[in-house]
Amino acid sequence: MYSDLTLIWAFIIVFAVFVYVVMDGFDLGIGILFPSFKVGPDRDTAMNSIAPVWDGNETWLVLGGGGLLAAFPLAYGVILSALYAPIITMLLALIFRGVAFEFRWRDPAHRPFWDAAFTGGSLLAALSQGIVLGALLEGIQVSGRAYAGGWWDWLTPFSLVTGLGLVVAYALLGATWLILKTEGDLQRQAARHAWRFGGATLVAIVTVSAMTPFLEGAYFNRWLTYPNILWVAPVPLLVAMASLAFVRSLKGGHELAPFLLTLLIFLLCFFGLGISVFPYVIPGAITIWDAATDRSSQIFMLIGTGLILPLILGYTGWAYWVFRGKVQAGSYHV
C-alpha cells in the first residue's frame, strides 16, 4: 500500500509539472517571440491571447513544487541545494515577467521597458527551466542524505543544450498558440515562426536524445541495448510521426492541429524522460521510495489533493472555455 501511494504521488507531481510546462510554456513562448511583433496592435493582441489564463497556469508550478516538498522532502532538499541558482533565477524571472505583464498596460509611458522586461523574464525563465532539467538528468552528487557537489555543478554543456532546447520548444508552443488564437498578419507571422522553431525544436530533441544515453549507464541500457530497445523504440517513432503530421498541418493551413501536435510532441518527450529516470527522482542516487515521506502523511495529503485538484481542473477548463475563440485586435482582458 505504501509503495502504491508513493507511485500515486509521483504521478501527481509529474502530471502537475507536465501541465505547467505545456500551459505556461506557450505564455513564455509568446514572451520569447514578443520582440518580433509590431509595436502596437500586434503586441497587444499577442499579450491579450494569454491575459485571461497566464497567472492561473502557474498554479501547476506551485502544485508541482509544493507536492515535491510535501511528498518527497528528501528529494526536494537535495534538488534545491544542488540547483539553487537556476531555480531562484527562474522564480525571479517569472516574478519580473508577471510585473511587466501588468505594468505595460498601467504605465504606457514606459511600455518599451516593460516589453523588454516581459521578453527578458520569459527567456530567462525558460532557459533556467531547461538548465534544471539538464542538470537533473546529468546527475546530482549525493552523500548520505545530502548534496555533495559544488555551487557550479549545474552549469555544463549538456544543461546549456537542454536550456536552449526548451527555449526554442517554448517559442514553438507560443507560435502555435497564436496560430490558433489570432488572425491576419499576426497569424501569418506566427505560422512563419512555427516553421522556424519547429525545425529548431526537432534538432534540439534529436541532440538531447543522442546525448542522454551517454550520461549514465542506466540510460544507455534502457535505450540502446537489446531487448530494451524494442520496448522504447515506439517513442522516437511516434515523435517522428507527430513531427511529420505537424509539417502537414502547417502546409494545410490548419489552426488547431499544429498546437495539438506540439502538445503531443511534448508529451512524448515526457514519456522518454520517464523511461530514462524511473524509478529515480534523482537519477542514480535516490529513488521515489527513498525520498518519500511516511505513509500517514501521504494519505493525509492525498485526501486534500483529491478535493482540490478537481477544483483546479474545473476552473482552469472553465477559463479556457469562456475565453475560447479568436482574440480581436483592440479587445482587452487585463
What's the rounded overall pLDDT mean? 88
Structure classification: mainly alpha
Strand order of the largest sheet: 1-2
> What is the alpha-carbon Rg in Å?
20 Å
Q: What number of domains? A: 1
Low-confidence stretches: none
The helix count comes to: 15
Tell me the total number of β-strands. Answer: 4
Largest sheet at a glance?
Answer: 2 strands, antiparallel
Shape estimate: globular
What's the N-to-C terminus distance? Answer: 47 Å
Helix share bin: over 70%
Protein model, in words:
With about 325 residues, the protein is mostly helical. It has one domain. It is built from 15 helices and 4 strands. The strands form 2 sheets. Strands 1-2 form a two-stranded antiparallel sheet. The chain has a two-stranded antiparallel ribbon with strand order 3-4. Helix 6 packs antiparallel against helix 7 and helix 7 packs across helix 8. The longest helix is centred in the N-terminal third of the chain and has 32 residues. It is globular and about 55 Å long. The protein starts with a helix and ends in a 12-residue tail after the last helix. About 40% of the residues are buried.
